[in-house]
Amino acid sequence: MNIESPDKLVELLDRHAYLADEGLATAAFLALRMGRPLFLEGDAGVGKTELAKALAGLLKAPLIRLQCYEGIDAAQALYDWDFARQLLHLRAAEAAGVNDVGRLEAEVYDRRFLIARPLLKAIETQPSVLLVDEVDRADDEFEAFLLEVLSDFTISIPELGTVKASTPPVVVVTSNRTREVHDALKRRCLYHWLEHPDFDREVAILLRKVPGCGEQLALQVAKAAERLRAADLVKPPGIAETIDWTQALLTLGARDLDPDLAARTLGAALKYREDVQAVVSNGLLA
Hints:
The chain is built from 14 helices and nine strands.
């Protein structure tokens, strides 16, 4: 798809229910045009993952997600051999009287027995959008491995040979900044820090994302979220939490942000007991 400008990308993302500001749209546009991974950093719930989903939608490409976590290794990101099926194949060949070792070895390492994990799947799928989610949860060794793969989008499989992407996937890497990601990986990418939306944008997002939400409720929830983010909380609410909060209020029939109902539904927006207690005791919902 030929996207002429950041403004055009804003328009296309809007059609997929993602309201991007000028800075984010410019970073995403450049990543698409230059064929570089886009590294998005920011607090949890500000829309980093949702951008990858929206890009996949507008590009009509599958979203392939690599969820990072502590202890993830190359095998879990690249590929695995299906040992159970390989063993069944060997037993079936043995029962059929096949004793040609070379033939059996070639058959057992056939592509049909290979389980493609997200990185290999993204390289083999054209077009595709690869989301490397929460890379800050992985360790340094995995970061170094990921940097190598993102440099040339080539994977070597000893038993089968080299797999190279004819058209590299669109790559979005996200981090909640629970730790600092090494400069080597960031240098490979175009970087953008994703802020919480401003008041007007948050109201627009709530009206778009929450069916049945009236303007009055959207305005009041956005204003309350603004106050909560200005407070000294362990985890201020992101846009994902304000959407959940609005949906909870609507489920209970609310048309405006009544302080009592807001307090009773606060668990949709805040996830720490200390935060809930601080907000209620300091009257931040009044």
